[in-house]
Amino acid sequence: MKKFLFITFSLLLACVAWSQNDSNDIVKVGDAMPAFTIVHDDGTQLTSSSLKGKVILVNLFATWCPPCQKELAAVKDQLWPKYKDNKDFVLLVIGREHTDADLTKYNQKKGFAFPLYPDKNRAIFNAFAKNLIPRSYLIGKDGKVVYTSKGYTDQEFAELMKQIEGALKK
């Protein structure tokens, strides 16, 4: 029994260490934002290059992910009301492996006032990371990553809000 508990505990620690491992991250603080194109179901596109000079928050989520739900609720209640009218700020909430149709249906349930963007083939997600959601990447006006987070906690979200404020002042 002790051997079983030891093995179970060791595997748990290995999983936690692996999930926190920077090798799962492609984009890190100080890196330039990767170039990407959001392609809508109707073929219209939004390119990352069209957002130059703005503070950009890229949030990667999935509709089935419980921590993502908590984070998007905080975006809805705290972040979006504060920054939605700021001309220097862009929020890109991107649904990993979701289409516009999926996101429209999801938004009907959630009632978000901010736009949701599709990433049905993981092309955008794969430019930023290998796995784990939710993820957020804050890009400064110079196009470089100033803050990253994965997972969701109230403390992390408070830090994200602080980092947005700082990036907008630069």
Protein described:
This protein has helices spanning 2-20, 66-83, 100-110, 123-128, 154-169; strands at residues 37-39, 45-47, 55-61, 89-96, 116-119, 135-139, 145-150. The chain has 170 residues and is an alpha/beta fold. The protein has one domain (22-169): Glutaredoxin. A five-stranded mixed beta sheet has the order 5-4-3-6-7. A two-stranded antiparallel ribbon has the order 1-2. The longest helix has 19 residues, at 2-20. The chain is globular and about 35 Å long. Residues 4-21 have low confidence and may be disordered. Keywords: Cytochrome c-type biogenesis, Redox-active center, Signal. Residues 27-169 form the Thioredoxin domain.
Within CATH, the superfamily carries the name Glutaredoxin
CATH topology, what is it called?
A: Glutaredoxin
Helix content: 40-55%
Give the count of structural domains. 1
CATH level 1 class label: Alpha Beta
The total strand number stands at: 7
Q: Please, what is the average pLDDT? A: 88
Helical stretch count? 5
**Residue fraction in strands:** 15-25%
Terminal residue distance: 58 Å
Strand order of the largest sheet: 5-4-3-6-7
> What's the overall geometry?
globular
Segments where pLDDT lies below 50 for 5+ residues?
4-21
Specify the structural class.
alpha/beta
| Oligomeric state of the chains present here | single chain
The secondary-structure element order is: HEEEHEHEHEEH
CATH architecture: 3-Layer(aba) Sandwich
Main sheet properties: 5 strands, mixed
Radius of gyration computed on alpha carbons: 17 Å
Domain Thioredoxin: 27-169
Subcellular location: Cell envelope
Main location: other
Organism: Parabacteroides absconsus
